[in-house]
Design goal:
This protein is of the alpha+beta class and 677 residues long. Among the domains are: 12-145, TolB, C-terminal domain (Neuraminidase, 6 Propeller); 161-182 and 199-291, no CATH class; 360-459; 535-545 and 554-659, no CATH class. It is 34% helix and 24% strand. It contains 20 helices and 24 strands. The strands form six sheets. It has a five-stranded mixed beta sheet, with no helix packed on it. A five-stranded antiparallel beta sheet has the order 17-18-19-20-21. Strands 1-2-3-4 form a four-stranded antiparallel beta sheet, with no helix packed on it. The radius of gyration is 33 Å and the shape is globular. The two termini are 56 Å apart. InterPro entries: NOL11, Nol11_C, NOL11_N.
């Protein structure tokens, strides 16, 4: 998620539908999916074609699969029956009983109690709600009826298991959260299902209202025994409804913190390993959090800080503003958030009572906001030098953010050397300092952009394309006056005083004019002209080094292709000519490797060449100036295919020669005749 790159993608056939969420088996590192209600699929990460994955057709419809870290996958059927995956795979067509009758499952969850998996699900029938608790390994089922609430009904459920007790939390339509305690009964062999139905009573846990505003919740998750998170829309009198993610302290009935979500959500909130997952607009947002020991002082203090005139408890943290810097660096007591999101859950701990007198990173950055350039850079260098190892990356990211913010406020300020030093000496990423490359593009800092492209693993494809377009559009004369690292090109592009490349005799792998003429009906141009075209680099030394940095940048083809289609035709032809030049240069070497530091690999060159042709093929076919380039590229590739095809034909003979060479005694003189058929 941090690199914004899809790692795998699998699709079912046309007409098939995935009917429940896909889960991961933590024990076998396999994915488990169900399509068309009954067809089970199991595959591993290296599997490419889902149609060839393991398939099992079950005898009943599946509602949900739950995967437990130490308990294995558990399958819940629509009829209320539960099976572990191991038992189910032993006989996929085994008969599945119906536990419920006329009821519809509304929610389910799986937990571990000791060594036993416990599955809990709720159902609805005619306005009544029921709770089932099952232990699949013990074939134990307990059914309860939920106490009815006048003029309100449950919207969503969540639960956790502690000390042999299930705590079921219910978010009701009256903007309240209720708690239901269900003891895990110890089953005995003599126990029989009772005719009498036990009714579960509930208690009010939390009212989702504060300062006259009411939160209309749509999703609820438990964070720990004292905190819950609620996703919903805030309805305040006389104000427009807005969606928020909120965290509440259930122990003291207080709102801890919140974040507005102006782009809207799907109404769903997931929580896994101290991370929130939610859909914000069209983006999957991941927010890390950390809850510590709850205390009344922390809860009241949070409310006290938030209740300032004309400021709602529901704070807006869309950008990293001054007050947010302080909130985001509360040492070990802060909630660490991803990218735009910053939250803080204050808590009582011994460490909090013994905080050092030194200022936090956020406070020091605030104090330096109006400092002079010299003081700012000196203090920031000290800050990075003293930063503890666990917080070093976050500290450096905020230092770069502080510098880029000043660049935006003051167009005349640009600490070029300082920024280049930070990028060169620290292992940064684009997500830590997202404004850095945009500022570098605005300032035409080609060297910094080159360093970022070579070092950042998570640059968005749009930014990569913007850099490529900027490099291609810049004149050679202007580039010669810019300091650019040319280590990646200096070893294979030799430049004379008149800026023309020195011609060297080359022998391509498997290429000759005679071979190609034998394969093609059309004749080659004069050899001297052809050699000159393919040997001379179409761009200067500096531009070649910058383009090599683009070739090193990680990308996903699906996301980059739409941007490359917008590349101007002349720039696309120039880029393809350079890629073709690199391709020929690589083919000169037996190991197809270019000399130099951070030189592009043959795979990178071929991938970009194919990507560019996919994006611009129609345009290039129509342009007369691209005709010769495409023809030469086609001939060269075809000649190499022919050459490697001929090598494959004699591969067996070469292996036999190698085997005989090992058997031959070095001191024995002999003449052998080998017949190659």
């Amino acid at each position: 998620i941090s690199d914004q790159k899809p790692l795998g993608c699998w699709s079912v056939k046309h007409g098939q539908i995935l009917t429940c969420p896909v889960v991961c088996n933590f024990e076998t590192h396999e994915y488990i999916a169900v399509h068309d209600d009954k067809v089970l699929r199991i595959w591993k990460n290296e599997d490419i074609n889902l149609d060839k994955a393991f398939k099992a057709t079950l005898s009943a419809d599946v509602y949900r699969i739950h995967s437990l870290p130490h308990g294995g996958p558990v399958v819940l059927f629509r009829g209320g029956a539960v099976r572990t995956l191991d038992v189910l795979l032993e006989a996929p067509q085994q008969e599945i009983e119906n536990v419920i009758s006329g009821e519809v499952i509304r929610w389910s969850g799986a937990f571990m109690e000791g060594q036993q998996p416990v599955l809990i699900f709720t159902t609805e029938k005619g306005g009544d709600f029921f709770v089932y608790v099952q232990k699949p390994k013990l074939s134990s089922v307990h059914r309860y009826k939920l106490e009815q609430q006048e003029s309100a009904k449950p919207l969503c459920f969540t639960a956790h298991v502690t000390n042999q007790t299930v705590t079921l939390l219910c978010l009701y339509s009256n903007d309240s959260v209720y708690q239901v305690l269900i003891p895990l009964q110890q089953d005995t062999e003599e126990e029989e299902e009772e005719e009498k139905e036990e009714i579960l009573s509930k208690s009010l846990l939390l009212n989702l209202s504060v300062s006259g505003a009411v939160l209309k919740g749509t999703s609820l998750v438990v964070l720990d025994k004292d905190h819950v998170a609620v996703l919903g829309s805030l309805a305040a009198p006389g104000k427009e409804r807005r969606e928020c993610l909120t965290i509440w302290n259930t122990k003291f009935q207080t709102l801890q913190t919140s974040k507005e979500l102006p782009l809207g959500t799907s109404g769903q909130l997931w929580c896994y390993e101290e991370k929130f997952f939610l859909i914000h607009g069209k983006v999957l947002t991941v927010i890390m959090y950390k809850c510590e020991t709850s205390s009344l002082a922390a809860a009241v203090g949070k409310l006290k800080d938030s209740q300032t005139p004309d400021v709602s408890l529901f704070l807006n943290w869309n950008t990293l503003e001054d007050e947010e810097l302080v909130v985001s660096f509360q040492s070990q007591e802060s909630v660490a958030l991803k990218a735009e999101s910053r939250m803080n859950l204050r808590s009582r701990s011994t460490a909090a009572e013994e905080q050092p007198a030194t200022l936090s990173v956020g406070q020091r950055l605030l104090n330096l906001k109006g400092a002079s350039t010299y003081v700012l850079e000196t203090e920031l260098k000290k800050l990075m030098a003293k930063a503890p190892t666990p917080d070093l990356q976050a500290t450096i990211g905020c230092v770069v953010t502080a510098l880029t913010d000043r660049c935006k406020r003051n167009p005349k300020y640009y600490p070029q050397n300082f920024l280049q030093e930070i990028v060169e000496t620290h292992n940064l990423s684009y997500s830590l300092c997202p404004d850095l490359m945009s500022v570098a593009l605005e300032k035409n800092d080609m060297h910094l952009l080159q360093m970022c492209l070579e070092r950042f693993p998570d640059i968005p494809e749009e930014v990569t394309y913007t850099c490529l377009k900027a490099f291609l559009s810049m004149s050679e004369a202007h580039l010669q006056s810019i300091d650019v690292d040319v280590d990646s090109v200096i070893c294979y592009i030799d430049v004379e005083m008149d800026d023309k490349e020195v011609k060297t005799e080359i022998v391509e792998n498997g290429f000759s004019a005679e071979m190609d003429q034998d394969m093609c009906d059309t004749k080659f141009p004069k050899e001297s002209h052809f050699r000159s075209e393919e040997e001379s680099c179409p761009v200067g030394l500096q531009k070649a080094a910058l383009l090599n940095a683009v070739l090193h940048s990680a990308y996903t083809e699906t996301f980059l292709l739409p941007h490359l289609k917008n590349l101007p035709a002349q720039q696309a032809i120039l880029f393809l000519r350079y890629l073709y030049y690199l391709y020929v240069k690589c083919s000169e070497k037996v190991n197809t490797t270019l000399p130099g530091i951070r030189s592009p690999t043959i795979n990178q060159i071929m991938d970009w060449m194919c990507l560019l042709l996919d994006a611009q093929f129609t345009v290039m076919v129509m342009l007369p100036e691209a005709k010769e380039l495409l023809s030469n590229l086609h001939k060269f590739v075809r000649a190499q295919v022919r050459f490697y095809s001929e090598l494959n034909k004699i591969e067996g003979s070469l292996q036999e020669l190698q085997r005989l060479n090992h058997l031959r005694e070095s001191q024995t003189y002999s003449i052998e005749v080998l017949e190659i058929i």
